[in-house]
Design a protein that fits this description.
CATH topology of the largest domain: Jelly Rolls
Number of helices: 2
Largest sheet: 9 strands, antiparallel
Strand content: over 45%
Order of helices and strands: EEEEEEHEEHEEEEEEEEEEEEEEEE
Distance between the termini: 12 Å
Length: 293
């Protein structure tokens, strides 16, 4: 994987360390561990009266992954070592991004173990080895597939995908000339995933509702122009806010937060309102999840 690029962001200030072909730091040969696999914790109950039994539960717990880097330049080792030791600290959270041209992914965790010995003083090679611990065992796609399912685009009466500039924080965007207020989103990841949904109003909207595969969350509210309701089903528990203020208490009691999930494969997402649905912009953000890369 000569085109493999690793970028590590410090979450507190978004500072970046990167390693890859043509950079000062490169990924060492056989320098990746825990990237290409996973281990499930399966619960098993023996049968009382026959051989075998039943698998009664399955769970993926926390995941550790280790990466080793080598410093390529023939000089500047002491400064490089001081810089990485200042960048990687015990109390910070880090976003580890892996880009290799297929499934560009990331995971967020903390440092479990770090080693950057002074062996370069004798042997000339400066190496940095870091083991990260991730609470979420899955890799997430860097692209969050932001799609405004209520967008009206001239000369486009059909779904389409389009590339946008590298500086656009949402990665890729999809628009649709949406007469039915319903679209199909495909989750081609390894497992089910959750999403965030942003609902904004261009005029008065009464009691907006979002449906995923027939399950729904309905907010009892009269939205005015420029109001924004955010539904975060990734959070545990899910969060509903209006203009940044907690609004979960305004949800219809029949709302089903638990089943607002994007299954593997095709999913239908729909929006509606008691009145004013044509004044809504509804954007869905989701990351595909992978057990291994």
């Amino acid at each position: 994987m000569s085109n493999l690029l690793i970028q590590i962001y410090r979450m507190s200030d978004n500072a970046k360390f990167e390693a890859g072909e043509g950079l000062d730091w490169v990924i060492s040969k056989d320098g990746l561990s825990g990237f290409g696999g996973f281990q499930s914790d399966l619960g098993f109950v023996d049968s009382a009266n026959r051989d075998g039994g039943d698998i009664v539960s399955e769970h993926l717990g926390k995941k550790d992954r280790t990466v080793t880097f080598t410093y390529r330049p023939s000089n500047g080792h002491d400064l490089a070592r001081r810089n990485v030791l200042a960048f990687f600290t015990a109390k910070e959270r880090y976003k580890l991004c892996v880009k290799w041209g297929l499934n560009d992914v990331f995971s967020i965790g903390k440092i479990e173990k770090l080693s950057c010995p002074e062996s370069h003083l004798k042997h000339g090679a400066l190496k940095l080895t870091i083991t990260f611990l991730f609470a979420n065992p899955y890799w997430s796609s860097i692209d969050d597939f932001g799609k405004n399912i209520a967008a009206l685009r001239g000369m486009a009466g059909f779904p389409y995908m389009c590339s946008i500039t590298p500086n656009t924080p949402r990665g890729r965007a999809g628009g649709i000339f949406n007469f039915a207020q319903l679209v199909t989103l495909n989750n081609s990841g390894d497992v089910d995933t959750y999403c965030k949904i942003s609902i904004s109003a261009t005029d008065e909207v009464i009691n907006p509702k979002i449906l995923i595969n027939g399950e729904y969350v309905r907010v009892i509210d009269t939205m005015q122009r420029n109001d924004v309701i955010e539904m975060d089903f990734i959070a545990q528990p899910p969060r509903i806010t209006k203009n940044g203020v907690n609004y979960v208490g305004h949800c219809d009691r029949t709302s089903n937060f638990t089943n607002m999930v994007l299954k593997r494969g095709d999913n239908t997402i729909q929006y509606d309102a008691d009145n004013g649905s044509s004044h809504l912009n509804v954007t869905v953000y989701y990351n595909k999840q992978y057990g291994a890369i």
